[in-house]
Amino acid sequence: MVSDEPSPTLERRARTRVGVAVELKLHAPEHHFMLLSRTVDLSSHGAFVRTNRSLPCGTSVKVAFQRGKERNPLTLKAQVVRAGLANGGRSTGIAVRFTHLTKLDEALVIELIRRAQA
After folding, report:
1. Domain of 87, in residue numbers
2. What is the pTM of this model?
3. b or e along 45-72 (b: 16 or more beta carbons within 10 Å of the residue's beta carbon)?
4. Are 95 and 46 in contact (CB under 8 A)?
5. Structural domain tally of the chain?
6. For the chain: N or C, fewer Cβ within 10 A?
């Protein structure tokens, strides 16, 4: 018998990621690593970031999203949850989950997504 229920292993994310390219700076001080890049996809709670260098799962990072010339970057704490491929295997990078999000942080990330889609 085939079930219409989604597999729990396939439904790992609480929020759907949207394929948008948002400029960011990623900093992993423990690994002496700083990167200027773009997202492959983004949700209010995480992102997949293009990079040729992976970081170990569990690594704490800071992600600063560029919000335009008249606005300060949105800086969030995050944790690496996966390294590998995304975008149908066309992009290498790392997946991060934002930590210590406030309601304002979440609203600002949602606004970033909306602006990137426009």
Report:
1. 23-117
2. 0.83
3. bbbbbbbeeebeeebbbebbbbbeeeee
4. yes
5. 1
6. N
